[in-house]
UniProtKB/TrEMBL annotation:
The lineage of its organism: Bacteria, Bacillati, Bacillota, Clostridia, Lachnospirales. It comes from Hespellia stercorisuis DSM 15480. This is Transketolase. The keyword Oxidoreductase does not apply. Residues 3-169 form the Transketolase-like pyrimidine-binding domain. InterPro entries: PDH/Transketolase, THDP-binding, Transketo_C/PFOR_II, Transketolase-like_Pyr-bd, Transketolase_BS, Transketolase_C. CDD domains: TPP_PYR_DXS_TK_like.
Length: 313
């Protein structure tokens, strides 16, 4: 069953506000689009709208954090990660301040809004910053777990979410921690590591591969920085081949991070599924995933290629 990221996010934010009286929420004139109006109605003195100025948004959050508050910046991924990147680096990462950035509408799933709104580079940017943790949620249950974990952690963190509907991957409350991951399927032939909305596609690919006699492990790699190194190393040794899948540029994202780690610890073939050095365009999420080869069929084909590269078939 598909459920809304945005509807769940406001529930998670309200829950966090109850647990942390010093938590405040900031937006750049996007409260209605992000369904934050419920928060402002309940906590009018804990909501800050800085207007359409994302650089001020980030700088204001940094300043508030120095007073003992926990600022949660919420906005479209393009406008809370890429537009104010200098302020994120200088005002949050460098002084290692306790600011949380929650980025909605990430990747091609923004759909008809087009290339200007499709953040395909945000993971690559944020994971280069010292002190930052970088996460991606696969569904609404994980969104709640991620918010809870981020608020409990003292330091800067970035959470990447989709636009709206996501298929349920998890039914019950789940663990979520920096450096964590979920082994959703265990197979011996190839490992598929995915994050965000691509976890659903990875699971579908594993089912299709199973029908052909190929047993794939599937990892929900929700912690992109730090990586779930122990699990990645284990599966590299067990399966000898990897596929990574993300709604992001191939360059610098989850696939790049995994390639960097495995090349230095346990070199195995890695095929990356992601946008291949192109800007996006307007279209439905399904159509864009097909055009840019981010579907379950594309993941399954990549898995077979990775297996051939290790000489098994």
């Amino acid at each position: 069953m598909k459920k809304s990221f945005r509807s769940t996010l406001i529930d998670a934010i309200l829950s966090g506000a109850e647990e942390y009286p010093n938590m405040v929420v900031l937006n750049a004139d996007s409260a209605r689009a992000l369904k934050l109006t419920d928060f402002s109605a309940k906590y009018p003195d804990r909501m800050y709208n800085v207007g359409i100025s994302e650089t001020d948004l980030v700088s204001t959050a940094a300043g508030l954090s120095t007073t003992g508050l926990i600022p949660v910046v919420v906005g479209f991924s393009m406008f809370v990660s890429e537009k104010p990147f200098e302020q994120i680096r200088q005002a949050i990462a460098y002084p290692n301040l306790n600011v949380k950035i929650v980025a909605t509408h990430s990747g091609l799933c923004v759909g008809q809004d087009g290339a200007t709104h499709q953040a395909l580079e945000d993971i690559a940017l944020l994971r280069t910053l010292p002190n930052f943790k970088v996460f991606a949620a696969a569904d609404v249950t994980e969104t709640k777990a991620a918010m809870k974990a981020m608020l409990a952690y003292d330091g800067p963190a970035y959470l990447r979410l989709g636009r709206d509907l996501a298929e349920d991957i998890f039914e019950d409350e789940k663990p979520f921690r920096p450096g964590g991951a979920d082994l959703l399927r265990n197979g011996s032939d190839v490992t598929i590591a995915a994050c965000g909305l691509m976890v659903e596609q990875a699971l579908m690919a594993a089912v299709a591969l199973k029908s052909e006699g190929i047993n794939a492990s599937v990892i929900n790699a929700y912690s992109i920085k730090p990586l779930p190194e122990e699990l990645l190393l284990q599966k590299a040794k067990e399966t000898g081949a990897f596929v990574t899948a993300e709604d992001h540029m191939k360059t610098g994202g989850l696939g790049g991070a995994i390639c960097e780690y495995l090349s230095e610890t346990c070199p195995v073939p890695v095929i990356r599924i992601g946008v291949d050095d192109h800007f996006g365009e307007s279209g439905t999420q399904d159509d864009l995933y097909k055009k840019y080869r981010l579907t379950a069929d594309d993941i399954a084909a990549a898995a077979k290629k990775a297996i051939r590269m290790k000489g098994l078939v």
